[in-house]
Specification:
This is Glycosyltransferase family 4 protein. By secondary structure, the protein is of the alpha/beta class. It has helices at about 15-30, 45-50, 75-100, 110-125, 145-150, 160, 165-170, 190-195, 220, 225-230, 250, 270-275, 290-300, 310-315, 330-340, 345-360, 365-380, and strands at about 1-5, 35-40, 55, 105-110, 130-135, 150-155, 175-180, 205-210, 235-240, 260-265, 280-285, 305, 320-325.
Length: about 375
């Protein structure tokens, strides 16, 4: 099978992009021929090329190249111009598909942007289009187009399913398949990481990993920090990630961000040493399709404190592999963290249960192979 993988956010390397890299790796291991197309050069293309694969770039026209929700804020005239550029771009992509020396059997779109552009072009060429939907955040009216366009619509959690129109979920039921994302087993010592950041062995290290944005909810931890430190003086907070241009104001208004117990690392590509170093991972998102970082923490044998949001409850078992709280309940979050900070045996027990759950339900190779197998079945049935 010849698969074309499409990434529309190649300028960052977050969970979505890492998932595509893993899927690309599994497809190659299974003996399939692959191509990768992205909308521009960037860190994603660098990673693909480090795997020995080439990247084809097909840049967006000006109005489609906006990120951070800018397109949704366009006025009427700008929206018309955007639609015209989108039609022209889809034609360019269609011509690209038709002019390939080796026939492409299937197109995998890693996000909604890719499906609405390359996915449409593929359908015009009679090539099936696939998406592995990882977002529970609604796109408004655009969500009405996803199921009709995709030949195979894989969802990462039940939370993603909620954004589709009810009648479409019934009409296109056979297109929808749920496959959780997965990760490789994370092992190794994290002592050097703690030493590098000046974290003592007696410190309890709470960590949040992800882009610094309102969606990820770093403010929920930081606003209770003074009370938490009063209860647990040996707390340290590690914030791993950076803000994009759309979250500058959010970063500037984060409470207690300059507290001496808070360490900001910026973006870190390899988080395995981080996960091996921490005591508790926090995933306090306001929206979260699944929360791959929670799976990674569990794989490293660490407990997770998360919000009852999106797909997080499908990963974290409350009271067994971690603790779940309501997003806006500061008192419940403070109680959960205080409990774990004062009870190392509970942290150890939950961490071990999380490791077993990650290995049983979220093995990366097994989950990604299931995605490839679904694509093979789709191609063979046509």
């Amino acid at each position: 099978m010849h698969i074309l993988f499409v990434e529309s956010y190649p300028h960052v390397m977050y969970g979505q992009q890492r998932t595509l890299l893993y899927l690309l790796e599994v497809a190659c291991q299974e003996g399939h021929t692959v191509q990768v197309l992205s909308t521009e050069r960037g860190v994603f293309a660098d990673h693909v090329e480090s795997m020995g694969q080439s990247v084809i770039c097909c840049g967006y026209p000006e109005r489609l190249s906006q990120y951070g929700g800018a397109i949704y804020r366009y006025g009427f005239r700008d929206k018309l111009l955007t639609q015209w550029q989108a039609f022209s771009y889809i034609k360019t992509l269609r011509d690209f598909l038709l002019n390939q020396e080796e026939h492409i059997d299937i197109v995998f779109c890693n996000d909604m942007r890719g499906l609405l552009t390359m996915g449409v072009a593929a359908r015009l060429c009679g090539i099936p289009a696939v998406i592995w939907d990882k977002l529970d955040k609604p796109h408004g009216v655009l969500d009405w187009f996803q199921l009709p366009i995709a030949d195979l619509n894989i969802i990462i959690s039940d939370a993603v399913l909620k954004k589709y129109p009810a009648w479409q979920k019934r009409w296109y039921k056979r297109k929808i398949h749920k496959i959780h994302d997965g990760c490789a087993k994370l092992d190794g010592s994290g002592g050097d990481v703690r030493k590098y950041w000046g974290i003592e062995p007696s410190d309890v290290l709470l960590t949040m990993v992800g882009s610094i944005t309102p969606r990820k909810g770093q403010d929920r931890l930081l606003r209770i920090l003074p009370e938490l430190i009063t209860s647990c003086p040996n707390i340290k907070v590690l914030l791993v990630g950076e803000a994009d241009d759309t979250a500058t104001k959010y970063c500037q208004t984060l409470p207690n961000i300059d507290h001496p117990s808070v360490i900001r690392t910026g973006y870190i590509d390899n988080i395995a040493p981080i996960m091996s170093s921490i005591d508790v991972l926090l995933l306090l998102s306001r929206q979260e399709g699944l929360g791959l970082v929670a799976v990674e923490a569990m794989s490293a044998g660490k407990p997770v404190v998360g919000t009852r949001t999106g797909g997080i409850p499908e990963v974290v078992i409350d009271g067994e592999t971690g603790l779940l709280v309501e997003g806006g309940d500061d008192a419940a979050l403070l109680e959960a963290l205080t409990t774990l900070c004062h009870d190392p045996r509970l942290r150890e027990r939950m961490g071990q249960a999380g490791r077993v759950r990650a290995e049983t339900h979220f093995d990366r190779h097994r989950q990604h192979r299931r995605v490839v197998e679904l694509m093979c079945s789709l191609v063979e049935s046509r």
